[in-house]
Amino acid sequence: MGPQSAPDAEFVPALRRGRPEARELMAALARLQALGVRPDPAALYPGARRVDLPPYAFDERHFWLTPQAPAATAGTTATDAAGLGLADAGHPMLGAVVSLPDGGAVLTGRLTAAGSWLADHVVQGRGWCRARRSWSSRCGPAAKPAAAGWTS
């Protein structure tokens, strides 16, 4: 009926049955903008204010977090399992020892490039360690800390 009564006018549907009202209204405003009408955004969003856009993505600014080393407790380093409340194993390759109820123990350790013992195991700039099934028996009594309940 509208186009017949005003043939020189442009009609833009704003509300359609079965479609979300907000989306349809924004689509109608976009169509009006494309036709040269300049809608007033302040009328749509009262109390809105202008904000700066984020910087250009490739302007050599970095916004990601840098990794932080975990904090250490007194007498431990941040990477020692002893820092978790476990007993110190007393050997550079072993991090900590946990006493088991049956009298046994679980020895923990981590092989990392930051390990102090690795400096003695470098060949042509690369660290290495030969694996053995019985390596713990070669550590001797020094690897059996009293805190874990070991006896020599």
TrEMBL record:
The keyword Transferase applies. Keywords: Multifunctional enzyme, Transferase. Gene3D superfamilies: 3.30.70.3290, Malonyl-Coenzyme A Acyl Carrier Protein, domain 2 (3.40.366.10), Polyketide synthase dehydratase (3.10.129.110). Pfam families: PKS_DH_N. Residues 91-126 form the Polyketide synthase dehydratase domain. The keyword Transferase applies. GO terms for molecular function: fatty acid synthase activity. One of its GO terms (biological process) is fatty acid biosynthetic process. It comes from the Bacteria. This is Polyketide synthase dehydratase domain-containing protein.
